[in-house]
Design brief:
Elements lengths: L1 H7 L5 E4 L2 E3 L4 H21 L5 E4 L2 E3 L8 H4 L6 E5 L6 H13 L3 E5 L5 H5 L3 H7 L3 E5 L9 H9 L5 E3 L12 H8 L6 H13 L15
Parallel strand pairs: 1-3, 2-4, 4-5, 5-6, 6-7, 7-8
The structure holds fe (ii) ion (FE2).
The site of fe (ii) ion has 4 residues, from loops.
């Protein structure tokens, strides 16, 4: 998969690794996972001779009262934290937890909103989240899911996602290459370069993201 990435991505692109963590995870497990992730990055950086930049962060499952491991998973040098919830989470629970994160000084980036029932029913709720500073990121893995593909396409066609990520878990998964770009071009209201370049760069620069829906239509 790393070979495919280095062939498909522009030289100098940044890839952020986001292994799964959970707020309820034991601290020893968190530290061990971080260390494995850093070792992995170290190895592939040598393999591809610096053609891509790699950063280590995490995707944090939020549930219950504990909000642990935020420092360990945040995107390096930023207050952005990629968070996910169980798919059955309610809208109110999502809102409460995201506000708790914001109160703690972090900016939540909501992973794969298309998986949540509240979002499929009322996608305009993502506008409310963007107004309180929350980012949203559709996952390309959802395009291959019978349950989530239509919602993922709809969010992009309505400009209701700030960004698109590969969310690749295995070599069989899609990456941000021309095949995906051509697929997304058919339905996305927002240009590929914004979803996969400009907005991710804003996140890495620790900037606040624009309000949704993104209005810039392709020319
Ligand atoms: Fe996830």
């Amino acid at each position: 998969m790393i070979d495919r990435m280095s062939r498909s991505l522009e030289a100098g692109s940044t890839v952020v690794f986001t292994p799964h963590y959970s707020c309820s995870m034991n601290r020893k497990i968190v530290i061990a996972r971080q260390s494995r992730s850093l070792q992995f990055i170290d190895r592939i950086e040598k393999e591809i001779h610096g053609e891509l930049n790699f950063l280590n962060a995490g995707e944090l499952m939020v549930q219950g009262r504990a909000l642990n491991h935020l420092e360990e998973v945040r995107y390096p040098g930023t207050v952005w934290v990629l968070v996910e919830f169980n798919t059955g989470v309610t809208w109110i629970e999502t809102l409460v937890q995201l506000k708790r994160l914001i109160k703690k000084g972090y900016m939540p980036l909501l992973a794969h909103p298309e998986r949540y029932r509240w979002c499929r029913r009322k996608p305009e709720r993502l506008i409310n989240l963007s107004l309180i500073g929350c980012g949203t990121m559709v996952s390309a893995r959802s395009f291959r899911s019978r349950k989530y593909a239509a919602a993922a396409r709809n969010l992009l066609s309505e400009g209701l996602s700030h960004a698109l990520c590969s969310d690749a878990h295995s070599p069989a998964d899609m990456i941000l290459d021309d095949e995906l770009k051509n697929k997304v071009y058919k339905f996305s209201r927002v240009p590929w370069q914004i979803l996969t370049g400009e907005i991710p760069e804003m996140i890495l620069n620790d900037s606040r993201l624009p309000e949704l829906p993104l209005r810039k239509l392709r020319g």
